[in-house]
Design a protein that fits this description.
The protein is an alpha/beta fold. It has helices spanning about 15-30, 40-50, 65-80, 100-130, 150-170, 195, 205-210, 220-230, and strands spanning about 10, 30-35, 55-60, 85, 130-135, 175-185, 245. A seven-stranded parallel β-sheet has the order 3-2-1-4-5-6-7, sandwiched between helices. The model has no long low-confidence stretch (mean pLDDT about 100). Bound molecules: nicotinamide-adenine-dinucleotide (NAD). Nicotinamide-adenine-dinucleotide binds near residues 39, 60 and 139. The site of nicotinamide-adenine-dinucleotide has 30 residues, from helix 1 and helix 4.
Length: about 250
């Protein structure tokens, strides 16, 4: 039995990395994927590869009108909307002294405000579809701090608690909508690629990052997508407002 039989899932940040791996898995498990991203070239190429069960929609997650349009077109094209993965995100290396107001706003606008807009805009469409599952990607850096990641930690901490609010509100309103956060360790995606070649002391960036994880390696996008698939599916029917960690033991 496919695990997402006919479920329609919109993936923000679906053109690359963890979002793209999830969009592929959704189709493999019998669902429909909407690849929504500001990178039109990569997003369209992935949707073409996935065929009739996928659609690309241009989306800048910081724009409310763009979210409204993407959700309306999704429901119109596939006849409903049952899943949302908020994966669009950016990383920066900043500390409290060097971080500019502009940097802080840019990271928080995409990572935190973009997730807020996604959750807010999708709820009416999910209600119309009889319920659904929202998955927000936070990070291990939404659970603990890092001296080099001020704006990123602040944005991912916000995603963690925003998720709990959405879960509690939807439960109280009896919408049959669940909402959970996923907290990856360092995953081998284009976001992390620049750090792999930057030496830390006498170690390569890759080696330094690998040693942070007790399993001794970086994660793969597909490993995080497997956890997200579970949360999008009805197998996770009693999980809401929870933090799901996928970090090779980093936070242990
Ligand atoms: N890779 C990691 O180590 C790691 C660890 C923890 C959390 N995360 C989080 O996982 C999520 C996915 O990251 P990834 O590693 O797959 O990165 P990635 O760079 O491969 O993919 C991110 C995608 O988001 C899109 N995007 C960026 N800004 C956007 C915007 N304003 N509107 C629409 N799309 C936008 C990009 O075009 C890209 O396709 C992010 O939220 C990231 O913070 C990643």
């Amino acid at each position: 039995m496919p695990r997402l039989d006919d479920k329609v899932v919109l993936v923000s940040g679906g053109a690359s990395g963890i979002g793209a791996a999830t969009a592929r898995l959704v189709v493999r498990e019998g669902g429909k994927s909407v690849v929504a991203d500001r990178d039109e070239e990569k997003g369209r190429a992935l949707a073409d590869e996935l065929g009739a069960s996928a659609l690309f929609l241009p989306l800048d997650v910081t724009r409310e009108a763009a979210w409204q349009k993407a959700i309306a077109v999704t429901a119109e094209t596939f006849g409903g909307l049952h899943g949302l993965l908020n994966a669009a995100g950016i990383g920066t290396r900043t500390d409290i002294e060097s971080c500019t107001l502009e940097d802080y706003r840019r990271v928080n606008d995409i990572n935190a405000l973009g997730t807020f807009l996604g959750c807010k805009t999708v709820i009416p469409a999910m209600k119309q579809s009889g319920g659904g599952s929202i998955v927000n990607i936070s990070s291990v850096l939404g659970l603990r701090g890092a001296s080099y990641a001020l704006a990123y930690c602040a944005s991912k901490g916000a995603v963690r608690l925003l998720t709990k609010h959405v879960a509690l509100h939807c439960a109280q309103m009896k919408y049959n909508i669940r909402c959970n956060s996923v907290h990856p360790g360092y995953i081998d995606t284009p976001m992390v690629a620049p750090r792999l070649t930057q030496n830390v002391g006498n170690m390569s960036g890759r080696q330094w990052l690998e040693e942070l994880h007790p399993l001794g390696r970086l994660g793969e996008a597909g490993e995080v997508a497997n956890m997200i698939l579970f949360l999008l599916s009805d197998e996770a029917s009693f999980s809401t407002g929870s933090e799901f960690i996928c970090d090779g033991g980093l936070t242990a």
